[in-house]
Specification:
By secondary structure, this protein is α/β, with parallel strands linked by helices. Helices cover 44% and strands 13% of the residues. The protein has one domain: TIM Barrel (Alpha-Beta Barrel), CATH 3.20.20.150. It has helices at 2-8, 39-49, 64-77, 101-121, 138-158, 181-191, 202-209, 212-219, 244-253, 271-286, and strands at residues 16-19, 53-56, 80-85, 125-128, 162-165, 196-201, 223-228, 260-262. Strand 2 (53-56), helix 3 and strand 3 (80-85) form a beta-alpha-beta unit. Helix 2 (39-49) packs parallel to helix 3 (64-77), helix 4 (101-121) packs parallel to helix 5 (138-158) and helix 7 crosses helix 8. The longest helix has 21 residues, at 101-121. It is globular. The two termini are 26 Å apart.
Length: 288
């Protein structure tokens, strides 16, 4: 598309990513604009846009051969791998917050699989979420999560992996243990290990806690990954209520060296919607 070609000729002030699959592995950010939904075609399109990398919730569910193709194309195009879900097969089970021997063994296997997948794509950020167990006190579950992260932190650090605790808004995904930023920070503080960090998703934090820019400054020292989506809902930057110029300017002022992971679907599910997403982002980025 002519509009897409114009986008590809320009640089960006921030290191944005496209995603290879947010709600499903075959539903990437640019599913209508790239040649196909195949991850390599998506990477090529994202690289041509001038973005800095990709994010993939479903990396670990992809065949090993496909993971290697992803890693090879990222390396060929000079793109970075952003975050991926540490336990995509059971993200909605009460696992990190369990003290059971079987759960802890599964967590170790999950991390080992994350390390193997990360090595294939040169990835370094695994996202950690867990469902709440309605039959156990919440305080005990948070204590278990802290202990489980402590037990695996050295293992992750040796492999160059950061385990990022993500608070997920209950209005978006009900039933998660960590659904407010204060609880996520409390977990990261208690673990007190450089391999256990905070994933700050501006959309989730705004939905759950509001005052998102204030929250960002309060916990900036703990952040290991940044994700962005406008609110209400999860929509294009510039299509909702948040002041993205001020947000991105604040991130930049903090000296954030990492990626800005775009983790939403376009407001309009079409090639035109994807172009509008980029046009909104261009307006915001040009103002920085």
């Amino acid at each position: 598309m002519r509009g897409m070609d114009k986008m590809a000729t320009q640089n960006w002030h921030m290191r944005y990513t496209g995603h290879l699959g947010l709600r499903a592995p075959n539903a990437p950010l640019f599913q209508h604009s790239a040649h196909s939904t195949d991850p390599v075609d998506q990477i090529r399109f994202i690289a041509d846009l001038g973005f800095a990398g990709v994010q993939d919730n479903f990396l670990k569910l992809r065949p090993v051969a496909q993971q290697r193709r992803i890693g090879a194309e990222l390396a060929r195009r000079g793109l970075a791998m952003g975050s991926f879900t540490n336990n995509p097969a059971h993200w909605n089970r009460p696992l990190w917050n369990s003290g059971d021997r079987e759960a802890r063994a599964l967590l170790r296997r999950d991390l080992d699989a994350s390390i193997a997948a990360a090595q294939r794509v040169d990835g370094h950020i695994a996202t950690c979420v867990t469902a709440i167990d309605p039959d156990k006190p919440r305080r005990i579950q948070i204590e278990h999560m802290i202990e489980n992260l402590k037990q695996l932190a050295d293992r992750a650090a040796r492999a160059g992996i950061a385990l990022c605790v993500e608070p997920v808004a209950g209005q978006w995904i009900p039933g998660m243990l960590i659904d407010h930023i204060a609880d996520a920070i409390a977990v990261v503080r208690a673990v007190d290990h450089p391999a256990v960090r905070l994933l700050f998703d501006f959309g989730h934090v705004q939905t759950s806690d509001g005052e998102v820019l204030t929250r960002f400054h309060e916990c900036a020292e703990f952040i290991g990954a940044i994700q962005v989506a406008d609110t209400p809902g999860r929509t294009d930057l510039g299509a909702g209520e948040l002041d993205w110029y001020s947000i991105l300017k604040a991130i930049r002022a903090r000296g954030w060296p990492g990626l800005i992971e775009i983790v939403h679907m376009p407001a309009e599910c079409s090639a035109l919607g994807e172009q509008k997403l980029l046009e909104r982002l261009r307006i915001i980025d040009d103002a920085l």
